[in-house]
Amino acid sequence: MGDHAQPRHDQHRGLRGRLAGLFSSPPPQPPNHQSNEQITKLMEELGRQRDLKETYKARLESTQGYLRFCLEVAQERGFMHLISDSAQPQQHSPHRDADSETAPTAAGDDVDDEDEPAETPPPCDPYLAATRGLAVEHGWSVAPEEIELHEVVGRGTTADIHRATWRGLEVAVKWVRPELFVSNPSAEAFFAQEADLLSRQRHPHVLRLMGACLRPPGSCFLVTELLSGATLGEWLHGARERGTRASSSPPPPPLVDRVSRALEIALAMLHLHEQTPRVVHRDLKPSNVLLDAELRARVTDFGHARFLPDGKEALTGETGTYVYMAPEVIRCEPYTEKCDVYSFGILLNELITADHPYIDTSYGPSKIALGVADGKLRPKLPESDGYPTGLIDLICRTWDAEPSRRPSFAAVTSALREIRQQIVQHGEQYQNYSYA
């Protein structure tokens, strides 16, 4: 009996060992460096896709309110019929339908479709027609044959900037590409508003309009003064790209000059915001500020600008450039002229640090937009030590998440004058602070 028990016991013990081996964890394997890199890349791509998803979700959620705003503006401006007509392209215009029902031909016969003349082009936008009339009345209407175009000196998304000659003067011509009017039914109204808005400006730091031609699609252009200086961004950063830090390039202009440019831009924005109705620029950034031969700043590019009556808020989709765009604009919420104050705050910080915004991060536009909209992201501030009193505080107040807490441009210009005075009085103290 005892001889048979021992082998049986050994069998059970061996079975338990094999079962334990099956259910136990495998021994740790050495890490695979290549696999870890792949996992890291996948996680980064997942994060980017998540950022894009949140951005698109925010856009979709704002669409209904944006469309309501568009309909209200169309009704107020008297061009609701244009939206109605474009929504039903298969139908004839209401005027033609009414004519066909009530006014037979002189001979009383039906007219064959093949004998009908080609349909005449639709009338231009009412705002464009009114602006064209103002241009003729006040003497700033320009005929295409008056302009002699020279080389292209700048390119935008919808227009080319030419050096040109007009009536013996060297001028700049912003010529809108004809395809814009073909692809965008609202282009005529937008161009008319830019021309109308610029024609009202008379300020030493706002680009001066000299004339305009409003004959879409082939001849729509603005004639402005020709400035020999660079853009503010070129003056500040030179040939550096956004990904290059200031420390790797020649030093920027002196601090007093950078603050002076900021003050000139603030004076231009004060002028726009004090008009009736107010003018909201909506795309303030270094590339939209030009410098003249004496390096004085001129705010330009009013393609996104809008009139804003007193007591009104504007509601629209994302307008401008993400890096300089106010959080309420990114969220597609109602906003006022304080969105320009936010953009100026980003620009002011860029002038002081001499670095592109968010250069210390690897974020793309969508990630920046989400961070700004959540109130958690702003560009890196300059070091507080060594800068004039109140400068860092002014920057922080201009980009406050709550628009009502941002200062007006009247307060901004007053603060910048004091800051510049400090620099002039204590020049040696600040001359070495070229960077943050």
From TrEMBL:
Molecular function in Gene Ontology: ATP binding; protein serine/threonine kinase activity
Q: Where is the signal peptide?
A: none
* Biased composition regions of type Basic and acidic residues, renumbered to the chain: 1-13
What does the record list as coiled-coil region(s)?
none
**SUPFAM superfamilies to which the protein is assigned, alphabetical:** Protein kinase-like (PK-like)
Question: Which UniProt key words apply to this protein?
Answer: ATP-binding, Kinase, Nucleotide-binding, Serine/threonine-protein kinase, Transferase
Composition bias (Acidic residues) maps to: 109-118
**Record keyword Glycoprotein present:** no
Residues given in the record as ATP binding sites: K174
**PANTHER family registered for this protein in UniProt:** OS09G0443600 PROTEIN (PTHR44329:SF11), SERINE/THREONINE-PROTEIN KINASE TNNI3K-RELATED (PTHR44329)
Query: Protein name, please?
Result: Protein kinase domain-containing protein
